[in-house]
Amino acid sequence: MHCKSSESLSVLSNMKTRTEEILTVMRVLTWVAYIGLCINAGSVLLAYGLSCFIPEAAKNIYKGLDMYNLRQFGFMHYSLSVALMAAVPILQAQMCMLLIKVLSKLNMANPFTKYVASKIVSISYILVGTWVVAVLAQAHDNWLQNELATIRINEVEGLPLFMAGLVFIIAQVFKRGVEIQAENDLTI
User: Fold this and answer.
1) What distance in Å separates the CA atoms of residue 79 and residue 96, rounded to the nearest whole number?
2) For a pLDDT cut of 70, what percent of the chain falls above it?
3) Which of 93, 135, 176, 187 has its CA 20 to 30 A from that of 43?
4) pTM for this structure?
5) How many CB atoms lie within 10 A of CB 39?
């Protein structure tokens, strides 16, 4: 009997160590994604700033995207397209920063905290916001397609909305976990 109990503790200890290792790797990967998204948004905004003074710079706004004809068509539409294009990685970077905070504050001995639950809810709101921005960008692109033969700048997919729903559900589970944990702490 004693042998089975020590084996159970050994397996549990290995799982805990494995989970902590996975969370550490996820934190590093989230930092990498955050830095990449900041570089992406910064590159778009820097190229836009340059194109405000040198119109030909709009021929290669980001990753070979030629927006020169759109800039010539209307500076406001060009500015809106660039703003929407930069808003998505900015929102995604904000989401990564919140995730980094969650992963940094997550205590495996007591994972259900109000702080973690509130950050997960915030992540779901940012995901919904990202989806809304992407839909607006797509609507603007569609309008531009009718007014001016341009290439597609932004493509909307349903994935951010699905992810937002999933994260929101996880956040609700975390909130309930906080409530149950508080109730258990009161009964002790």
Assistant:
1) 26
2) 81
3) 135
4) 0.78
5) 12
Question: 61: burial class by Cβ within 10 Å (0-12, 13-18, 19+)?
Answer: buried
Contact assessment for residue 98 and residue 126, using Cβ atoms and an 8 Å cutoff: yes
Residues 182, 117 contacting (CB under 8 angstroms)? no
Name which of 159, 90, 93, 97 is nearest 128 in CA terms: 159
User: Residue 10 above 60 pLDDT?
Assistant: no
- Angle at CA of residue 169, ends 14 and 154, nearest 5°: 105
Amino acid at 121: V
Helix, strand, coil shares of the chain, percent, nearest 5, are: 85, 0, 15
Distances (CA, A) of 141 to 49, 65, 156: 21, 14, 11
